Structures are given as C-alpha cells and as structure tokens.
C-alpha cells in the first residue's frame, strides 16, 4: 500500500526489509531526540504500548524500527511533519523543534504531540491528521 506522501511525489514506498527499517529507524531516533519526545511519546508514535520500554530500548540501541508497514507509515508521517516545519520555518530551528510541544487552538488547546497521544488507539490517524494540517499550511506559505 502506498502512503499518501509516496503517491503525491510519485515515489515508490520503501521496501519492507531490514535495510529500510534501519534507514527509517535512524531517522526516527534522530527526530525523537531533536523534538525531545518522552519515552511514552516515542512508544505511541510507533504504535507501541507505553509500558513496552524494553522493546523501545532494543530498537533504539539498534537504531531501527520493526519491519512493519504500519511502523514505516508512522515514521513517514513524522518525517512529513518535520519536512513541513523545516520548510515553513527555515531560519528558526527553535520554533521547528518546539512546535510539536506547543499548545495550539487547532488541536483543542493541546500540543500536536498531546493530540496524537491523547487517544492511543487512534494515534496513527491523529499523526496523519497533524501531517495533513501542516501540509495544507505549508502549501499556503
């Protein structure tokens, strides 16, 4: 299944293999460091239960994510969010890296990460929603 991002750029989706899991993992672990996401937020971004800390520790030590289409799409959406923020605020990295943790009216006065993680069973849809909102804002810049 192609992600919306892949379709919009006419790029094939990443292959589901260890090499792609490693590349996406390096990106994911770098982003969670830059955005200062908590362990619970990291878990929910990847679709894990927050108490699954050992699994997260193992993945982080290997700098990878599971070979799983859901995980690949989640990281793809997080990369899309990051891309939009970098394009919208190219000269203000502090704003880029604080944006996900700053409360906003569009998320019912929650931050984007609070919005995503508020309903763990819907975290994928909410992550996608944040990405789409930023894509729409970016296009109007």
Short description:
This protein has 141 residues and is mainly α.
Can you tell me about this structure?
The protein is mostly helical and 141 residues long. It has one domain (17-139). The chain is 65% helix and 0% strand. α2 (18-34) crosses α5 and α5 packs parallel to α8 (123-139).
Topology record:
Blueprint: H1 4-9, H2 18-34, H3 39-46, H4 53-62, H5 69-88, H6 93-99, H7 112-117, H8 123-139
Helix pairs in contact: 2-5, 5-8
Shape: globular
Total domain units:
1
The total beta strand count reads 0
pLDDT averaged over residues: 91
Give, in order, the helices and strands.
HHHHHHHH
Spatial extent as radius of gyration: 14 Å
Please report which band the strand proportion falls in: under 5%, 5-15%, 15-25%, 25-35%, 35-45% or over 45%.
under 5%
Q: Provide a count of the helices.
A: 8
CA-CA gap between termini: 30 Å
Q: Which blocks of ≥5 consecutive residues have pLDDT under 50?
A: 1-8
Structural class: mainly alpha
Largest sheet: none
Helicity range = 55-70%
Notable traits:
141 residues; mainly alpha
């Amino acid at each position: 299944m192609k992600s919306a991002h892949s379709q919009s750029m006419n790029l094939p989706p990443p292959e589901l293999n260890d090499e792609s899991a490693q590349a996406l993992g390096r990106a994911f672990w770098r982003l969670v460091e830059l955005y200062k996401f908590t362990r619970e937020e990291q878990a929910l971004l990847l679709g894990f239960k927050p108490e699954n800390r050992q699994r997260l520790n193992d993945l982080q030590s290997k700098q990878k994510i599971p070979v799983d289409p859901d995980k690949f799409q989640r990281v793809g959406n997080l990369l899309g969010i990051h891309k939009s923020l970098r394009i919208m605020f190219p000269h203000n990295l502090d704003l880029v890296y604080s944006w996900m943790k700053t409360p906003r009216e569009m998320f019912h006065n929650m931050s984007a990460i609070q919005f995503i993680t508020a309903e763990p069973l819907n975290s994928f849809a909410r992550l996608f929603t944040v990405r789409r909102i930023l894509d729409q804002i970016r296009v109007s810049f």
